[in-house]
Amino acid sequence: ALSSRFLVGFLEATFYPGAVYLLSRWYKREELGYRTAFFTAGIGLSNVFGSLLASVILATMEGFLGYAAWRRLFFIEDCLTVVVGICGMFILPDYPSSPAHWLTPAEHALAQKRMEEDSEGHGPVEPKASGDSSDLLSMITDWRAWLVGTALSCCNASMSFNMFFLTLVATMRYSPTISLLLCAPPWIVSTITAVTVARRSDAKRECFGHMVFALSMLIMGYTLAMSTMNINVRYISLFLMAQAQVANDILLTWISNTFARSSSKRAVAIGFMNSIGMAGSILSPYIWSSSWGSTYTNSYLICIMLASTCILLCWVFRRHLKRLNETAEAEERELSLPKGYRYLL
């Protein structure tokens, strides 16, 4: 069982950063957040339909053909994932220059041109062959990578409630089936919120403020949950917590838009910082210790501190990028140069 869990985690680890990296190869900076939100909306929808599917299977398939209902649940959900994954291998091209039967030559040329224009002044778009580890070394020695990676780790840990969402719903003392059904509405609203906020972030070309807005809803939800055991208020708090998922989308988009436009360096940057960020998930079981239930006041306080730390670190990062933009603007003005690359704030 332990080796199976290790293999699942080992193979799954590259999926999320790999998907974000792939999106960054096809969409411009002012389009990436909206598309990333659509991608991660799948997480919210899986929470919705997964809960509904689980409630049906666990209620009706116990002992069917001699198997426990939870085994049926694993088999059905895993088969769907494997089928979709295999199809994706043959449908999704790596880069705009890669062969894709569903794109015309004109569309291929347009896709490549768009990314060249977006990367102007910030390095080549397509990957270059490299036989050394200079890209990884540059990330390891870049203080900004550690800063943002730590912020991402705090963000992930502060939103670890999603791993224990059913446990928090269960504190309202409903039956298991009702609790599973109650999990669906917050994630439906969360999906709508994520797409809306990410689209506005792209339109305004601004990341920090929108991320703070999302984390503020998370803090508000935790504060409400700590304040009372009233069923209605606690359910509202779960809605607020779920809306914060878009903060992770925006932060990952910000990382992708900031670090090196070259494909190889960007892949290393996303993978490296996501690795640091995932370290926050290690804390999750300790944050939501069963001994702190059913109020989970200590858990909420820890997550509020982590979310606040994430905001502080991102503020420092924003100040740094703002200074770089001001320096570039001053140099262009002094040398009468056309406006060049600017970091998104």
Description:
The protein is mainly alpha-helical. The chain has helices spanning 2-12, 15-24, 29-60, 69-91, 105-118, 134-140, 143-158, 165-170, 176-182, 184-204, 208-227, 231-243, 245-258, 263-287, 297-335. Helix 3 (29-60) packs antiparallel against helix 4 (69-91), helix 3 runs antiparallel to helix 9 and helix 10 (184-204) packs parallel to helix 12.
Q: What value does the average pLDDT take?
A: 82
The structure class reads mainly alpha
Shape label? globular
pLDDT below 50 for ≥5 consecutive residues: which ranges?
123-127
Report the helical percentage: over 70%
- End-to-end CA span: 45 Å
Instruction: Give me the strand/helix succession.
Output: HHHHHHHHHHHHHHH
Beta-strand residue fraction? under 5%
The total strand number stands at 0
Number of helices: 15
- Gyration radius, in Å: 22 Å
What is the makeup of the main sheet? Answer: none
